TrEMBL record:
Residues 6-63 form the Terpene synthase N-terminal domain. It comes from Musa troglodytarum (fe'i banana). Pfam families: Terpene_synth. Transmembrane segments: none annotated. SUPFAM superfamilies: Terpenoid cyclases/Protein prenyltransferases. This is Terpene synthase N-terminal domain-containing protein. GO terms for molecular function: terpene synthase activity.
Amino acid sequence: MLKCDAKIKERAEELRGQVKSMFNDTTDLLQTMELIDSIQLLGLDYHFQKEISKVLSRIHDAGIDDRNTTLLSGFSCSDNTDIICPQVICLIL
């Protein structure tokens, strides 16, 4: 039984590494936000808080004006902090 548990943990770590590399390999912000959305829907975002925070900071610092990216980042931000980001409030108004 322990051998099986070790293999499962090893495979889980391998998959986490693959997802983390997806954050580094993707330069398209909308594609990255869709990745974050999928991770959050699966309930796995707690594994990738550092990567998600970096992406949200990058969007905020760049002043992205794309409506889709802003909406996705706003929802991602609200999932992380239980508040709605200013970008989303501006789009709603």
